[in-house]
Amino acid sequence: QVCAQLCRRPCYCPWVPPRCPRGSPLVLDGCGCCKICARRLGEPCDFLHVCDQSQGLVCDYSSASAGTGGICNFEDDEEGCEVNGRVYRDGEVFQPSCKIQCHCLDGGFNCIPLCQENVRLPTPDCPYPRRVEIPGKCCPEWICEAQDQHLPRDARAVSPPLRYPCPEWGTEWSACSATCGLGFATRVSNQNRYCRLETQRRLCMARPCPALPAAFPA
């Protein structure tokens, strides 16, 4: 009955198919007539505007009032996560980029870096190490720069050299030490009163820990 009311025959579709956002494929509408952009997780849907079945999504009318559309959700309330417009199933491991690997879990996701987070401290043969992006390589690498590149022009003849104001240098914050609940992230930075490299820490939380099941009464 719904099909007879909403679907017109013959089909009249635009010559040019719509341009879909990233992660939304072209699919046939509910009438099986024209190609449309599949609706993604959390987006509104109805008989004509269908959800992306390749991601396991269905149109959920459970929280909709009579006569209105639904919301794209996982079938049987299966949890998942959406990253950059793409939906991942619960338990799936994926790589948004070559630098990190993520794990979809309980509606959220945890990521770990794939590039080494090693720190190269200054040495006599490499007093000014710097981490740079190398064309054709995913992970940045350490290089040694000449001392003259870091000194003011009028200070190159001064010994020992004075490097003030302190040129900012530091690594990125590491991944959180705990997969759920409070943990800490670390980095190495010279942003302190002595302009010396030191390890710094800060609190972080990837996601809340799931609640423990209640104990059975004695």
Quick tags:
single chain; 218 residues; mainly beta; Complement Module, domain 1; elongated
Could you give a quick summary of the protein structure above?
The chain has one helix spanning 2-6; strands at 26-28, 35-37, 44-45, 57-60, 70-74, 80-83, 86-89, 93-97, 100-105, 108-113, 129-132, 141-144, 182-189, 198-205. With 218 residues, the protein is mainly beta.
Walk me through the structure.
- There is one protein chain.
- The chain is an all-beta fold and 218 residues long.
- Among the domains are: 26-74, no CATH class; 81-113, Complement Module, domain 1; 117-145, no CATH class; 169-208, Single Sheet (TSP-1 type 1 repeat).
- It is 2% helix and 30% strand.
- The protein contains one helix and 14 strands.
- The protein has a three-stranded antiparallel sheet with strand order 3-5-4, with no helix packed on it. A three-stranded antiparallel sheet has the order 8-9-10, with no helix packed on it. A two-stranded antiparallel sheet has the order 1-2.
- The longest helix has 5 residues, at 2-6.
- The chain is elongated.
- Mean pLDDT is 76; it is low at 150-163.
- GO terms for molecular function: heparin binding; integrin binding.
- It is found in: Secreted.
